[in-house]
Design goal:
The complex is a heterodimer of chains A (165) and B (48). With 165 residues, chain A is mainly alpha-helical. Chain A contains eight helices and no strands. Chain A is 68% helix and 0% strand. Chain B has one domain. The chains are: A mainly alpha (165), B mainly alpha (48).
Amino acid sequence: MRALTDVTSEILRKWRESRGWDVPRMARELRKAARDTGEDVAAHHGLVKMIPQWERGNRAPRERYRLLYLKVFQDMLGDLPPGMAFGTELAVRLAGVRSRAARLPGPDEIRALEAAALAKPRQAMTPAEIRARATEAIAQLHEVADKLAELSALLGDDAAGGGAS
Amino acid sequence: MSARDDKIRQAMAELDVHVAEVEASVAALKALLADDEAAGEEEQARRG
């Protein structure tokens, strides 16, 4: 299992935010991870107080909680090919940008937004601008898909090569 | 740092830019529709 020695308070906050979780949700996830393994942890309201302190660096989480964080975010950390010279910070950035990409609307949804925006005259944007904005967004969506594929290929190649680079 | 690490960082940076551009365009379109909702609520409040 990856050590948590290089995880800073800032990274704990970024891990949480990359999932779009607020502090109470983070507390629930930690308690859920603890429940799954029968561990005893602080009550929900206690965790809600402690998490911001850990994230601000006012105090460090004890080993029990550090291990729970690893359990909760193991899929994100496991995203990295073994042997690759990646830092945790980069793993967080990668997970964050992938998560944002996954939340983007699809072309159909963008076209629906365009149609709704065109349904009546607007002062803020002309119909031509609305159409251009939607077309640009869809073109960028294709770029996003291409970059995601490129990243997967790069990460996959690296894993297949055992990180020998 | 290896050439492959560089490529990954570069691809990540470009992905970040493209995602931000889609987010900005979608936000602009949604803002137009949000204006409609706000205007509708104002209208309802005036009538109510």
